[in-house]
Design a protein that fits this description.
Blueprint: E1 9-15, H1 21-31, E2 38-44, H2 51-61, E3 65-69, H3 76-86, E4 91-96, E5 100-101, H4 105-110, E6 119-120, E7 123-127, E8 131-135, E9 143-144, H5 146-151, E10 162-164, H6 165-170, H7 180-191, E11 194-196, E12 202-205, H8 206-209, H9 216-230, H10 236-254, H11 259-280
Parallel strand pairs: 1-2, 1-4, 2-3, 6-11, 7-12
Antiparallel strand pairs: 4-10, 5-12, 7-8, 9-11
């Protein structure tokens, strides 16, 4: 199939201080896509290693690679917004510098991008630079509405997303002070349900991604801000479910020895809450 006749996809990579193995792997995974009508936009978040010189070298060798370096570190959300502004494609896909796409990711997703607000996929969890692969278990659910994503972003993460550029821009971009969850909720609220392909098309590096969630207290506080922002748009039973899960994360972090029993009790508690609200029609 001649993919060059297809719509352009802008692939946005955010990076900071990963000029060696990880960034090279991310770039290669984009350039090796079976869908070849792409542009690669790399936003360098003021790295203080040799990332800038590495990107200058590779962009001279690869015409599809465009890079832009910030003078001051602004964080991944700001970098994604810069990438959206610079994108020329009809569609946008994101990739974090320590993750990688499997070769058919764009090919598999793009056919659904005109029907749904976002197209995502489950990920393989890997460690030690690609070894010890573990698949995120996939559910039977394929289409996700606003309340589904309010409840859980299990299958919605930047490296898994492909969407129309007009949708990416119309939502006002990522809030630089909040998590991606806020952005995904805005997109689905404004443009309708999202879909998840039942195929693992991303390798998500467990060891490197630990740094993204290192401050659990801060992470918890941001979730509460987003929860309070959108809770009025969801049914009571889903508000209960989400707030329980937000607090569960912090509690289990502080009491890891009871993780199994606590999770079991919480699951059963919500199951009965859900039954009650279903009978009440709420």
């Amino acid at each position: 199939m001649n993919y060059q006749s297809k719509s352009l996809v802008s692939c946005i990579v955010t990076t900071k201080n990963r000029a060696s193995f990880f960034l090279q792997r991310a770039i290669n995974s984009i350039l090796n896509q079976t869908y070849q009508n792409i542009e690669l936009i790399i936003i360098n978040d003021a790295s203080d290693d040799d990332t800038k010189s590495f990107l200058e070298k590779i962009s001279n060798e690869k015409p599809k690679v465009n890079h832009f370096s910030l003078d001051k570190s602004r964080g991944p959300q700001f970098c994604r917004n810069q990438g959206i502004k610079l994108a020329n494609g009809n569609y946008i896909a994101f990739l974090d510098d320590d993750d990688e796409w499997l070769p058919k990711k764009i090919e598999k997703q793009i056919n659904l991008a005109d029907t749904y607000s976002m197209v995502s996929c489950p990920a393989n969890i890997v460690s030690e630079k690609g070894s010890n692969k573990q698949k995120i278990k996939f559910s039977d659910k394929l289409v996700y509405n606003f309340e589904d994503i309010f409840n859980s972003t299990r299958y919605f993460y930047p490296s898994g997303i492909l969407m129309k550029r007009e949708y990416a821009k119309s939502c006002g971009g990522f809030n630089i002070e909040l998590q991606e969850w806020d952005y995904f909720l805005k997109v689905v609220k404004n443009h309708g349900p999202a879909v998840v392909i039942d195929e693992h098309l991303v390798n998500f590096d467990r060891n490197e991604n630990v740094n993204r969630l290192s401050n659990e207290s801060y992470h918890h506080d941001l979730e509460l801000i987003i929860y309070n922002k959108y809770k009025k748009n969801v049914r009571l039973k889903n508000r209960i479910y989400r707030i329980m899960n937000i607090h569960r994360g912090r509690y289990l972090k502080e009491h890891s020895s009871i993780r199994s029993s606590y999770s079991y009790l919480l699951f059963n508690f919500y199951k009965y809450v859900n039954i009650i609200f279903t009978k009440l029609g709420k």
